[in-house]
Amino acid sequence: MRPLTFPRGIHPRDHKEATNAKLIEDGPLPDVIILPLQQSAGACCLPAVDSGDKVLVGQKIGDSEALIAAPIHSPVSGTVKAIEPRPHHTGLKLSSVVIESDGQQKHVECKGLSANPSPDEIRRKVRDAGIVGLGGAAFPTQVKLDPPKGQEIVSLIINGCECEPYLTGDHRIMVEEPEQILDGMLLLMKAVEAENGYIGIETNKPDAIEAMIAVTEKYPDIEVIALEEKYPQGSEKQLIEAILDVQVAPNMLPCSVGALVQNVATSIAVSKACRDGLPLVERVITVSGNGIATPKNLRVAVGTRVSDVIDFCGGTRDQVVKLILGGPMMGTTLVGREAPVVKGTSAILALTNDEIAKVDVHPCIKCGKCVEVCPMLLLPYRFGAMVEFGVFDELEDNHIFNCIECGSCAFICPSQLPLVQYIKLGKYSLAQSREKSRSA
Amino acid sequence: MSDLIAPIVSMGAIGAVLALILVIADRKLRVKEDQRVEKILEILPGSNCGACGAPGCRQFAEQLVSGEQGPAGCMAGGPEVAKKIGSILGVEVKVGLPQKARVLCLGGNLESQPRAQYEGIRDCQAVTLQSGGDKSCVYGCLGYGNCARACPFDAIEMTDNGLPLVDDFLCTGCEICVAACPRQLMAMKTEETKILVGCSSLEKGKAVKQVCARGCIACKLCVKVCPQDAIVMDGNLPVIDDKKCDDCGICVEKCPTDSLVENLINQLRRTSEKKKAV
Amino acid sequence: MTEEKLKISPAPHIATTETVENIMYSVIYSLIPAGIVAGYFFGLRAIALIITCILTSIATEYVFQKVRAKPISVFDGSAILTGFLFALTLSPRLPFYMAMIGAVVAIGIGKQVFGGLGHNIFNPALVGRAFLVAAFPVAMGSWYQPLTRFGVLTDASTGATPLALMKFEFETTAISSMFFGQISGALGETSAAALLAGAAYLFYKGYIEWRIPFGLVGTVAGVSGIMWLIDPGRYPDPVFSVFAGGLILGAFFMATDYVTSPITPVGKLIFGIGGGLLVVVIRLWGGMQEGVMYGILLMNALTPIINRYTRPTTFGVKQ
After folding, report:
1. Using an 8 Å Cβ cutoff, are A71 and A37 in contact?
2. Taking the CB of residue C151, how many other CB atoms lie within 10 A of it?
3. What is the predicted pLDDT for the residue at C51?
């Protein structure tokens, strides 16, 4: 069968060869862990510990009463040294819990659910374990498992696309731990009472497709779907379009079309939480790029500093020009190495000059390539001028909020205009002016 | 001759009919406009800056007449204009001191080195959203000139050192730059403020010292030396009580990082020649 | 402080290696066959005319950018391309000074007064040509019989273009002559073979898209074909219509100009079909023999409106 896909999109070089055949290693056990209190989309957590407190692995150190929030747990045993602003990947200093490890890794008592848990039990466990979407957006998973009344989830899609170049963490998970993915998937399907399960994987990961087919053979309602290698195949709305052939309306969630999308790593986290009671305190990341001495797939504790991870991979070599948290299409650049890995971090990339885009901006020549590739059917070239001249009401008319910021337009632009930055700035300014008019 | 009469008569008739229509239209369709709107409009600066909240000066004048706005609403016009509007509308206006824009950061490119190399849209807001900006100090002026671009009176110029310079003779105190700065570094000050604190960093002294040569390091020396006890610390920054301060200048002299400066209202003029002529 | 000064920039951090320069120079390369054929049939003077136009374009662009204190970008390829395209629309023995005036108008009025690259409404090369047609109608309307092998054209060798022969004397020209370029006409428009070779290269590189050129050519062929079926004595056959005049040059190299043509797929098709209709109308029923230039210029003017009304429906909104 021909691999499925969505219309439009781009084909960047995937650069996955450095790590796609490397086993996942356990990362460093750092002396100091920095846990920003804001790690998921939604509300910021309040600290649940005080400076000087002793903590154990898996102990809750922050939580929030808010509806959209996920608690944070300690990945090490040791002492809380401080609760203070610390460097964060956003470039700012954000309130963080700093824990000094005692190296003993003593666990709190963890208890999994019964062999046959109820949907409610699963949902509660997912929340208590602090599970968020590990694909990058870090949206609290439990919220997605609780769709609004009247909307039923029919299909669960497990996202194994990993369409960002360089990234191989999800790929390795599928090859090395397919049973656990399946287990998490069954739990998720149960939690939302889904009828069908799909696992979407791009064809550049044949071993992952094979591994997943092997474990799901006995389940008639679960299907492994081969997807064309194309960016942004792993975007939620594009994945739903490719597999279910429906489009999610602007400002709507996937549950509006009866779908739920979860990343493979999230699926494993759900399985671990429900079976063993383990909260989300570690994740698999890819450390890659020509600037890294030994690129690796690592299982690191959330809160490990970027510097510790890079040192564990033999440090940097050559002249690193950009340090990126996440993939090269959507990741953020870092100003230094002090920022910690957070729950939503999928990779640390150290890129050298010949790997990154050379920026030589020209005026827009209206070539229309951005329009050709935009998976959301927008006119990206127009946002630049609109933002520059401050015509914000036009932005909304052109559906700026439907943009998923995948970066396809800026990737393909021969004038190398920072189209995504214009869009982000436009969204921000629009939100601000709305707030202003609301308060006025 | 008859060749001429026909067109003269017919053209004259058409003209008369059209004139009649115009006269009727003028009587029937006339919109009554308050005379005061025109009068106020003459006083207003006419720059349509929008600082009052109305889209332009005419709309502001209309809102004044209908009572939606007060005479002091025109930020750009300041007290002078407010007084005149008051006399037209027949209301008394309490006049404050003229206010001028001031920059609450002294760390230009020389004082605060960039921590990264920025590539992208040259706009302060865009830079702030991108990895927290390229300036070492995350509270300091980014120097991409949003305030200067926003100023409807062309009163702000970016210096070579990457800081805004306000020309008090052009600045009308309209507050548009205050809203334009994503880091809230523009503030309006009157001559009541004698000493300005030229740093907005909330960091502790050591952290400030690492990123800026002119940042306040919270050494509290100014608090100690002030003969009037007019200075107190609020967090890591000094706050000067304008009422107590007698402008003796000792704190400015003693400040080890030069982060306190005299507030010279109406004495700042930009250096570039071409714009001086206003 | 960190020991390294990293770059911070918005995502994405990788990009295609395709640049504006790449695209411009590829189009220039694709025109070289047509330039060589022009030299072969109309003499070395034709080559000199092309070079004059290119140099004048570059100089004009430089002066405008200098005066407006804009960054100098005369070698981004766009000025060279405009000069080249403009030269290909000229009569082989046009005096050099006229060609230079036309090139100055093309870059100056056609492009720079609008704000430079990317901001112009009309195709600059055609603006230059339209100006010359109005200013020097005789010189622009004098055509010459082609020579062979880089010879020298003389006054004796004047000859009407196939379109003129058709229109005024109901005389058709052999398709093979028109295909290879052995006909009188503008420098670059006579050889369909050379132009199509260049166009094929651009298709291969993905720089031009089928909708505009095939919309244009298809409409011209279709409508003139219908007319020919109705009255073969009066109207030319569709193959003749396609290969005569500047249709191939216009359809593949001028109408496809990114800046002045629509961006949306539907808009491109509308642009092509609309342009084709105008060409046929002007050719068959208008006072002029050729309508490609005005057809494209008129569609250029409509481009913003076409873009506005053919905006794609965004993802997730039912049509």
Report:
1. no
2. 15
3. 95
pTM for this model (two decimals): 0.87
- Which residues, 6 or more positions from A125, have their beta carbon under 8 angstroms from its beta carbon? A113, A117, A273, A274, A277
Asked if the bond preceding C12 is cis, omega within 30° of 0, the reply is: yes
The token pair that represents A390 in the structure block: 């401050």
Q: Which residue of B lies nearest to C2 if distances are taken between CA atoms?
A: B115
Residues A357, C15: C-beta atoms closer than 8 Å:
yes
Which residues in chain C have their CB less than 8 angstroms from residue B136's CB? 1
**Bridge partner residues of A352 (DSSP):** A320
Q: Do residues A187 and A147 make contact, with C-beta atoms less than 8 angstroms apart?
A: no
Distance CA C195, CA A158 (A): 51
pLDDT of residue C148: 66
* Nearby residues of A183 by Cβ (< 8 Å), 6 or more positions away: A271, A275
pLDDT digits (tens, 9 = 90+) for C86-133: 999 998 889 999 999 999 999 999 999 998 888 999 999 999 999 999
Greatest Cα pair distance, chain B, in angstroms, is: 105
- Closest chain A residue by Cα to residue C116: A363
Contacts with B236 from chain A: Cβ below 8 Å: none
Spell out the domains of chain B, with CATH numbers in brackets.
35-89 (1.10.15.40), 100-277 (3.30.70.20)
A92 → closest Cβ in B116, B126, B132: B132
In whole angstroms, give the CA distance from residue A82 to residue C236: 88
Residues of A with Cβ-Cβ distance to B115 under 8 angstroms: 335-336
3-state secondary structure (DSSP) of residue B163: coil
Measure the CA–CA gap between C135 and C127, rounded to whole angstroms: 12
Minimal C-alpha gap between A404 and chain B (Å): 17
> Which pLDDT value is given to residue A108?
87
How many residues belong to chain A? 440
